[in-house]
Amino acid sequence: MSSGHKTVTGFCTVLLGLVLVLVGLVLRWPVWAWAVAAVAFGTVALALPRLTTPAVDPLSPEFTAEPDRPTDPPERREHTVTDVVLPSAAEDYDFRFSATVRWWPQELPKNSLPFSPVGVAVSAVLERARAVTETWQPQRASLAQHRLVGELAVMLPDSDGRLLAMAENVTLGLAEADAVRLRKLATVRKDEVLWSHERRYERDRREYLGKDVLRDTGSAVVWWLAKNDDQIHKAVDDLGVLAQLSAAANDKDVPDRYAQLVPYRTPAPEVDGSLNGDPSSNGHHGMPSVSGPFSVNGAAAPAPVDAFERLLAAMDVPAGHADSGVLARALYEGAAQVGREQASAAIRQRFDPAAPREPEPEPGLEPRAGLESEAGLEPEAGLEPGSEPSGAHGGGGGADVPEV
């Protein structure tokens, strides 16, 4: 017992005796009560030191053979690995693995070879991690990490059963360059799929419109009525438009029964050639001579004189009226401003009384060359220069051309 324990025991004993004396005086105990209190006080005073004495530690340094020898430090059974390359399901894209490896030694059989627990534990953990990562795509690195945490959180023996190993603080990721490439590839794939769907959608629409809706005019009308079933009169009014649209979709001509209903007719192509096989022209590139009829869309176009006569008839102007000369003169002056006075010369000669007449050729002289072309006529076939023409000059009753 130490001195401190002895002091506390004596203090408690004295305090207890004073309490008993005070209580006995206040209560006026009889003599026998004082005797019993004295016996009890003596018993407690003898038992109190034993009760307050601490138990002896049998392993305390004072009982050891070498009390000053330090104890051995505990064996360290963990190791940290960083940025270990593990394969993924995609070629050339590897995971980066980091973890804290922990192990627990197992009871070894006799005559077993010595080994390094660190190397065996790390090898066992990496083998388990590789079996997990090589089944995951690199773009699923975060999900593969959680899967790997669960797989490596259990202590499992290595292949030879020498120890149990596990891993904590597991991290799994990709190199930054690989992550950028994967994001770009994902964007390209999504754009390609979107473009493929758009192209297929557009092709289906073309086939639907070309082979079903616009197959012919009847199909176009039925399609239009299906879209606008309450506008029958408008469908009838737009029948020509639908016929032209279906014909254009199939690269064909509008059927004859709908030709009169087409509102937008194709303009006549520009005539490039000569009249009646005659290579002569009026001096303008690409414009045929107006001295005879020519073909437009397979039909012979009227001569300028005949066309002007029909114009006068449409304007209710008689052929011999003075207004016909004014109109012929205005046409000639307007044609002269654009360089086409030769085409309207025959019209002016016939309908304008004030127009200068061509002088008759004197006997013994050849007729002036180009007389027929100025009058809007072609020389008759089989006539030689100097022979008598069969028709009148300018279509009227002009004088005959004498022989030379």
From TrEMBL:
<feature type="transmembrane region" description="Helical">
    <location>
        <begin position="7"/>
        <end position="25"/>
    </location>
</feature>
<protein>
    <submittedName>
        <fullName>Uncharacterized protein</fullName>
    </submittedName>
</protein>
<keyword id="KW-0812">Transmembrane</keyword>
<feature type="compositionally biased region" description="Basic and acidic residues">
    <location>
        <begin position="349"/>
        <end position="360"/>
    </location>
</feature>
<feature type="transmembrane region" description="Helical">
    <location>
        <begin position="31"/>
        <end position="48"/>
    </location>
</feature>
<feature type="compositionally biased region" description="Gly residues">
    <location>
        <begin position="392"/>
        <end position="404"/>
    </location>
</feature>
<feature type="region of interest" description="Disordered">
    <location>
        <begin position="58"/>
        <end position="80"/>
    </location>
</feature>
<feature type="compositionally biased region" description="Basic and acidic residues">
    <location>
        <begin position="66"/>
        <end position="80"/>
    </location>
</feature>
<feature type="region of interest" description="Disordered">
    <location>
        <begin position="265"/>
        <end position="293"/>
    </location>
</feature>
<feature type="region of interest" description="Disordered">
    <location>
        <begin position="343"/>
        <end position="404"/>
    </location>
</feature>
<keyword id="KW-0472">Membrane</keyword>
<keyword id="KW-1133">Transmembrane helix</keyword>
